[in-house]
Amino acid sequence: MFRAAAITTRRSSQTLLHHRTSNIPPPPLHQNPNFLHRQFCSTPSSSSAKEAEIRKYIGYTALLVGSAIATYYSFPFPADAKHKPAQFFKYAPLPEDLHSISNWSGTHEVQTRVFLQPENLQELEKIVHDANEKKQRIRPVGSGLSPNGIGLLRAGMVNLALMDKILEVDREKKTVKVQAGIRVQELVDGIKEHGLTLQNFASIREQQIGGIVQVGAHGTGASLPPMDEQIISMKLVTPAKGTIEVSKEKNPELFYLARCGLGALGVVAEVTIQCVEKHELVEHTFVSNIDEIKKNHKKWLNENKHIKYLWIPYTDTVVVVKCNPVSKWRGPPKFKPKYTKDEALQQLRELYVDLLKKTVETTAKSLEINEPDLNDLSFTELRDKILALDPLNKDLVVKANQAEADFWRKSEGYRVGWNDEILGFDCGGQQWVSETCFPSGTLAKPSMKDLEYMEELKQLIQSQNIPAPAPIEQRWTARSKSLMSPASSPAEDEIFSWVGIITYLPTLDARQRKEITEEFFHYRNLTQTRLWDKYSAYEHWAKIEVPKGKEELASLQARLRSRFPVDEYNKARMELDPNRILSNRMVEKLFPLPTTS
């Protein structure tokens, strides 16, 4: 039987609060402070003015102490509260069967009683059929890695983590059929023995295959398409038409629409992937600048299988990362690093200690720096610690960026490994992300709009004093035939640039996270206003956010309609899922149906 569980669920802290408050009556919810004030301050007419004044202040003191005691016992926190993920405070204990599920960044969270994990296709078919009969929503959700929580739904979710098998490998055709719940790393590890690997990878390996395809995820390489283009056939479990198979040959119209279908056209149960021979890559990392990049950009896009730029705001530094197959004749390059790992991290460590000492001086707190622990921290962990001291302080962010530029300068060199090992990237801690995709000409004739975009973005950051941390990652892909892909294009040779801006969330303090969130959306909205229309840029589906204002939402809907076949997409939704059991608020808001109330 299928099991109801959560990917990364956590019991609410209210369960703990319940045990501490069960014998203490809560304070009245509608006490009137003015009433208390009158009771404490009323005096007989015969009292002297001095006695009245004393009683008045005694009354104030009693009110203050009483309020403090009532607050402490009404809203207690467990001893380890500071170590818990930030979340909105809830005033009542949650039922035992209600779980909190959040995405990896902790930016989106829902509570649900319905989280279903089928173990095979038959159980999945029954779940979808029964939900459709009851008109019970069950949104497909993958590993919960999407920054915008596109798969989350309070009403209910279905997750295929237990459907994670490799079903068939065709060594001759270099194809593999898998259940859609398998994670990328598990898939790659499973097909290595057959001499196969995936053509390209996103930054991390923990995504489920179904999720990474449905949101149009991508790696980098101007001659390589996004991940969805690697899928040559799919098996969808739909509410209205049951289980259907689509491919380039079988129902191609639906195939190209559903391949990047955002989970709203059916639950992807199985996929067949076009693979390539497993191979090693040589990664070359070096520091450059905009002038050098302008001279070499066209050549670099054409000559390198994988390439990306990491722009460091408030510096002239651009980190260039090239990855290419190891030469069968020359082998991997021989290279001796100029600096050790400790030397590369030294400026970041010194900056952290210096900033920490200054923080202690201004707050009069005792300072304890555990040197062994500090030396154990990675580059991204050090950056998080530095930013956590004052994440919205532009001057601090500038210093952190400068120290990061120094780290990359001292980390120049080569690295060799299997393609899945080399193409990964440590994205750092929890963060807000906005990533846009826009056309950049062709490989034969790049438009250079990608570099113009970055120059304008950096100028915008500086002119508006945005506390923008590093890096701003820029990648490229070829076009996709999937109609809903941000890189969709009928032109075979068109290339697209993907640019991601970030703001880290290095703190667990709820109020501070709220302030960081507001600053991030100010940053994002400025880029939207100044750049998106000018460069025909559209957000990654896993990073798009639904605006709160009606006018902003209407504007976004119109923009999406101008870029994507929204009518065709909605028509397929109504045919395959007329009760909209696979949709959530995000899908409904972005693609409203005529019958949506």
Automatic annotation (TrEMBL):
Alphabetized GO MF terms: D-arabinono-1,4-lactone oxidase activity; FAD binding; galactonolactone dehydrogenase activity
Signal peptide (residue range): none
GO cellular component labels: membrane
Transmembrane helix found in the keyword field: yes
Cofactors that this protein relies on: FAD
InterPro entries for the chain: ALO_C, FAD-bd_PCMH, FAD-bd_PCMH-like_sf, FAD-bd_PCMH_sub1, FAD-bd_PCMH_sub2, FAD_lactone_oxidase-like, GL_DH, Oxid_FAD_bind_N
Keyword Lipid biosynthesis found: no
Transmembrane annotation, as ranges: 57-75
Domain FAD-binding PCMH-type: 107-278
GO biological process: L-ascorbic acid biosynthetic process
PANTHER family: D-ARABINONO-1,4-LACTONE OXIDASE, L-GULONOLACTONE OXIDASE
Protein name: FAD-binding PCMH-type domain-containing protein
Organism this protein belongs to: Aquilegia coerulea (Rocky mountain columbine)
